[in-house]
Amino acid sequence: MLRKSLIAAAAVSFATAGLAADLPSKKAPAAQAAPAPLFFVNDNTISYSYQFDATDPGVKGKFGKNVFSFTHFDVWAMGTNFFTVDLLKSPGADPSSPCGLPNQPTTGCAGATEIYGLFRSTLGLNQLLGTKAFSFGPVSNVSLEVGADFNSENTSLAPAKKSLVAGLQFSMDLPYKGFFNISPLYFKEWNHNAFAQIFDHVPGGSTEFDGTWAVETVYAMPLGFLPPAVPLTFSGRAAFYGPKGTGSAVLPSNIKNKTVTTFNSEQRLTLDVGKMVTGRADVVSTFVAYRYWTNKFGISESHSDVCAGAKKSSCSENAASLGLNVKF
């Protein structure tokens, strides 16, 4: 996608670099070419979706979530930037604090509210070094990648995640102008755990996890083999995050406290409603998605007390969702 955008920008530059007509006795100076735009792609999207059968570690049962999102994506001469922030609203089945804290009510609290943000930025090595050496076989480019995540949720656990990633991204083209990106990364997380503070006497409840490995993938491909009247796109993401310790030197390093590898994925089928109705592509779309998430947040489904007994299913998620996107 980046390579195609660079070629298109160069074509525009050449097309606009016209010369003024010659005068009878004096040649006119060449007209200046219009400057290329800083961003070849600059997309902003607001979304609403409803997620069925959501879970939260340590919370009994499944429940629905309302999710409101803002997403920004841009492409410039050297790379890409992606940022998204979600507002997730749970019902009373996933209660906010003080429900769930010791000696506090167990019912009557409003549903939890979470804010989750994610940022990823890439710099293409072909562009940085002015070479084509990083285009080989199915790989169209290799990029440096950095990013960060953050969250805050008003549950009894009171998480406040901050994490950093850094590594490489390998980009590959798919049919119908699609793409597949895979990124081997270093991952480091800091968080907060109110129960670690109360029961395990961790100062302030602050947790610093060990650095670990991660592999993130993201992909999208328009289903161009379908009739133009059915503008569908298949897209998704899938990621593995390695074990990251217990998050505190105070906690005993036993099998119940240790984190394990987690896998988080979502597949999405998007219908471009705007193109079907008005002919304007990529403005209004609707989607159906499916999320599969094991060992949520690294908490072991098999060994952790958080997921024991009636709460066993709380550390995994198999959930469908429906949503609407509006791009501007």
Q: Explain this structure to me?
A:
The protein is mainly beta and 328 residues long. 10% of the residues lie in helices and 46% in strands. It has 4 helices and 13 strands. It has helices at 2-16, 125-129, 194-199, 273-278; strands at residues 39-54, 63-76, 79-89, 113-124, 139-153, 162-174, 178-192, 206-208, 212-222, 232-241, 262-271, 284-294, 317-327. The longest helix is centred in the first third of the chain and has 15 residues, at 2-16. The protein is globular.
CATH-scheme architecture: Beta Barrel
Q: What is the strand arrangement across the widest sheet?
A: 1-2-3-4-5-6-7-9-10-11-12-13
Order of helices and strands: HEEEEHEEEHEEEEHEE
| Low-pLDDT runs | 1-28
The biggest beta sheet is recorded as: 12 strands, antiparallel, barrel
The total tally of domains equals 1
In whole angstroms, how far apart are the ends?
20 Å
**CATH-assigned homologous superfamily:** Nucleoside-specific channel-forming protein, Tsx-like
Number of helical elements: 4
Shape: globular
